[in-house]
Amino acid sequence: MTSEQISAKELKKVAPVFGQLSFDDHEQVVFCQDKDTGLKAIIGIHNTVLGPALGGTRMWNYQSEWEALNDVLRLSRGMTFKSAVTGLNLGGGKAVIIGDAKTQKTPELMRRFGRFVDSLSGKYITAEDVGMETSDMDIVNEVTKHVCGISESRGGTGNPSPITAHGVYMGMKAAAKYKFGTENLEGKTIYVQGIGHVGEALVERIAKEGANVFVTDINQERLEEVSKKYGVKIYTGNDLYAETMDIYAPCALGATINDETIAKLQAAVISGAANNQLENEVIHGQMLKDKGIVYAPDFLINAGGIINVYAEIEKWSKAQIMDKTENIFNTTLDILTRAEQESITTHQAALRVAQNRIDERKKEK
């Protein structure tokens, strides 16, 4: 017998799952592994009080299994409150696949993942997220019916990114109205960090409205393409957070709002598509409030995607999808106003609305 000293840093002092803040009373965490396809995935099911847990699958080249676990726990928890605050009869879930989507994703791997989803008998419904395309969901759909975001030719609603971006755009306009007294973004300086599918669609909308847009991304080729396509500027400085701007729109990965960035941040409004933008939702939500920066809660304004895929279950028309998504404007304005009236952070205000809805449903049951 041999014994190995396990790094307390990675195992978080021998409480790698239940002991983590991100676990937050998850109902179920499923670890999926298949040697033949190389699949390593984790499915997090946070809460199913309002309905089945619906949330996309993200494929990312995580630095460690702990990083992947923490991500899926944070994301699935966020989905619970996203659906609740938006008024959808859905719970919160998410899945991550560990690997490089460009080099390791195969049809066989996606089918194997789909079988794991199917084994949960509808408690978790998947869809696309970072590293995934509509075509990948079509492959998953070959082995399970518990998937949304499939192509329109298969009876789905297709790529949810444009609808997600439209919801963020609505939330941004609401935050602008609250902060500046007008929802008009013309002339406003907006920095968009991350120009994937959703980021690009957001850039298109705010550029069309006449905003002064700067874009940044790790992909230089994408930057050139988006800059030329929409007539926006590429940010070439060294510290985006220290730049003077009206609106900061984080549209890449999360946790960009933290001790270091808040200290430098010059924005009046934060409104973007990324999930889990606050590294610590309590501490950093309060720091933004103290600094007078209006934060449009991410899980509220990026809910257009979940609305779009939920439409496949409810058989909503495109007009109904758009109506629901545009209502994010009203909900955001209500949340910002409520936060001011109750002297709490905007994140806390959105969370309360979502949690109250969940609690009321529990009483009914």
In short:
With 365 residues, the protein is α/β, with parallel strands linked by helices. 45% of the residues lie in helices and 14% in strands.
Shape: globular
Strand content: 5-15%
Mean pLDDT: 92
Helix count from the secondary structure assignment:
14
Question: What report would you give on this structure?
Answer:
By secondary structure, this protein is of the alpha/beta class. The protein is built from 14 helices and twelve strands. It has helices spanning 8-11, 65-86, 107-118, 134-140, 161-180, 197-208, 220-230, 259-264, 281-291, 298-301, 304-314, 318-326, 328-342, 346-364, and strands at residues 28-34, 39-47, 53-54, 57-60, 91-98, 124-125, 189-193, 212-216, 233-234, 247-250, 269-270, 294-295. α5 packs across α11 (304-314). The chain is globular, with a radius of gyration of 20 Å. The termini are far apart. Residues 1-8 have low confidence and may be disordered.
Labels describing this entry:
6-stranded mixed beta sheet, alpha/beta, disordered N terminus, 45% helix, 6-stranded parallel beta sheet, 365 residues, 14 helices
